[in-house]
Amino acid sequence: MPLDVARIKKEFPILARTVRNDRPLVYLDSAATSQKPIRVMEAESEFYSRHNAAVHRGAHLLAEEATDAYEGAREVVARFIGGKSDEVIFTKSATESLNLLAYSWGNAPSNSRFHFGPGDVIVLSEAEHHANLIPWQELARRSGATLRWFGVDDEGRIDLSHIDAIIDANTKVVAITHQSNVTGAITPMSQLVAAARSHGALVVLDACQSAPHFAINVAELGVDFIAFSGHKMVGPTGVGILWGRGELLAEMPPFLFGGSMVTSVTMESATYSSPPKRFEAGVPNMAQAVGLRAAIEYLDEIGMDAIHEHEVVLTRRAIEGLRSIKGVTLLGPAEVRDRGGVISFTVDGIHPHDVGQGLDDLGIAVRTGHHCAWPLMKRMGVVATTRASLYLYNDTSDVDALLQGVEKVQEFFGGKGIGR
Amino acid sequence: MNLESLYQELILDHYKNPLHKGLKSPADASVHHVNPSCGDEIDLNLTIRDGHLQSVSWDGVGCSISQASTSVMSDLVEGKSLKEASELIDAFGEVMQSKGASSGDESLLGDAVAFAGVSKYPARIKCALLGWMALKDAMVQLDGYRRVSTGESKP
After folding, report:
1. What is the H or E stretch that residue A121 is in?
2. How many Å lie between the alpha carbon of B64 and the closest alpha carbon of chain A?
3. Which positions ≥6 away from A46 have C-beta within 8 Å?
4. N or C terminus: which one in chain B shows less Cβ crowding within 10 Å?
5. Contact check, Cβ <8 Å, A353/B65
6. Three-state SS string across chain B, please?
7. Three-class DSSP category at A395
8. Domain B9-149 fold
């Protein structure tokens, strides 16, 4: 059933505001961060108004309520991805989730399966966001391990044609994006997971651009760890998720140390709690976890499959429309089924920053630049792109505004002898 | 569109036909600057004779604002003394930080006042400053900027 976008838009107060030149906001930057429905803001506010207390401590009613709210959020996240609740770790961001892995493993003693040293190989792809690239560069630098990576083809798809040479017996981990934040290309996971499994390598999935947009299930994916963020899925900022297989988390050393993550402490040493608490030192981001729960319940109410189908329709319209504009070049897979609603493009003769500025003048919010993926931009042969990204609250009129906007930008600069 | 105030004709003219573009060698100072928020890049070469900027040349990729601003800057500062150039850099920086309040002193900044409108767009200020910061860096490299701005005399 098609989404009732008019009704959805009403849930997002910011979409009703006007921006530059009193124009209505056309928000096409959800891949950077999504907007928030009223109920998410209310959930956070309600937590602070009624239940705020430090979780997992305190002998009072509020502490109990806060703990229930926080742990209840964990259960909802677990259900959303088909995992167990004690396998879900709340972090401050997906970036922190990925750093947690790289630092925890960097702390692992030499007899641990997570210990990295010379001869071990970390496999990435050229399509990674800096958040799933630099933590691994640093782990390699600290440990002496080697980085190896998959290239991408001309449409930005991860090129698996040399998979046997890239994932081998020395490969300890394969850390890969589920969907590119630049090209929208979706990574086909089964071959990657099978190759990693056959060599005993771990698989880390950066699901920042996938989890908000289509249903994901950790058992079906067969991966070992998943990282994603709350703020890209209509949830609050300041909350990220790390999901890991229970038996693996149980063997991992902590990353951050302090209160809430210990079983006993002396002046000389400490012993650590089991996961997930082992990885949640300090008073956690309770209100944000509660807000994320409201976000996930909202997405589930609408239905992840319905959201995905909606985005496929909009993506097709945007891609076909942009392709029909002379002077516009699209990045990413031509086939809509291979990609999500992240649409990067360039306009002949007009720098992406100038395109973005022209669209902003029309009230259309897009991202311009390198999208925190410099190696991929270099591979695609561009310094920067303009990127429009779609979500459940966008409709065909938003897409059409973009298409008309691009033509207006061409007219403006074309009239000045630039572009065209 | 209401873009006219930002993209003045003069800016777009310099974007289309940039001045002093194409690096001249040898140079007394060479710098490479990147705007990490958008990936724009610039190389700038500077030669100094008798305390004056004898030649300012550059090459780079970037948006119309960054390219045009570097073009205008090069033309403005070439031939000026290090002290005059450092005053121009400071004056242009003040206009950029003014949030639209300053239209700039045309008798001092010349064509560079066309960029005053950029100061109303915080995300673009770095674009307009890219070439100017490269020049400042090149002058610091020559130790000229610091000497001039602290009032030290030439050796």
Report:
1. strand A121-125
2. 7
3. A290
4. C
5. yes
6. CCCCCCCCHHHHHHHHCCCCECCCCCCCEEEEEEECCCCEEEEEEEEEECCEEEEEEEEEECCHHHHHHHHHHHHHHCCCEHHHHHHHHHHHHHHHCCCCCCCCCHHHHHHHHHHHHHHHCHHHHHHHHHHHHHHHHHHHHCCHHHHHHCCCCCC
7. coil
8. Sufe protein. Chain: A (3.90.1010)
**pLDDT tens sequence across B89-114:** 999 999 999 998 999 999 999 999 99
Query: What are the residue numbers of the active site of A?
Result: 372
Looking at this predicted complex, what is its ipTM?
0.89
Residue of B2, B3, B16 to mutate for A, most A C-beta atoms under 10 A: B3
Within 8 A of A366 by CB-CB distance, chain B residues are none
Smallest Cα distance from B61 to chain A, Å: 8
- Nearest 5°: the CA angle A11, A15, A16 is 90
- Whose tokens are 């500077």? That residue is B46
Side-chain-facing half-sphere of A303: CA atoms under 13 Å: 8
Residues of chain B with C-beta less than 8 angstroms from the C-beta of A384: 38-40
Q: Nearest CA to CA, how far is A384 from chain B (Å)? A: 7
Helix axes B122-141, B82-96, angle to 10 degrees: 160
How far is B33 from B37, CA to CA, in rounded Å? 12
CA distances for B139 relative to B30, B34, B48, B91, B152, angstroms = 10, 17, 9, 16, 15
- pLDDT for A359: 98
- Measured distance CA(A82)–CA(A70) in Å, rounded: 19
DSSP letter for each residue of A189-208:
HHHHHHHHHHTT-EEEEE-T
pLDDT tens, position by position, A270-312: 999 999 999 999 999 999 999 999 999 999 999 999 999 999 9
pLDDT in tens, A395-416: 999 999 999 999 999 999 998 8
Domain boundaries along the sequence of chain B:
9-149
B62: contact with A, CB 8 A cutoff: yes
Token pair of A109 as six digits: 């003693």
pLDDT for B155 equals 42
Cβ-based neighbours of B104, under 8 Å, separated by 6 or more: B91, B92, B95, B112, B113, B115, B116
Identity of the amino acid at A17: R
Which residues in chain A have their CB less than 8 angstroms from residue B59's CB? none
Domains contained in chain A, CATH given:
5-30+303-414 (3.90.1150.10), 41-300 (3.40.640.10)
The SS3 of residue A106 is helix
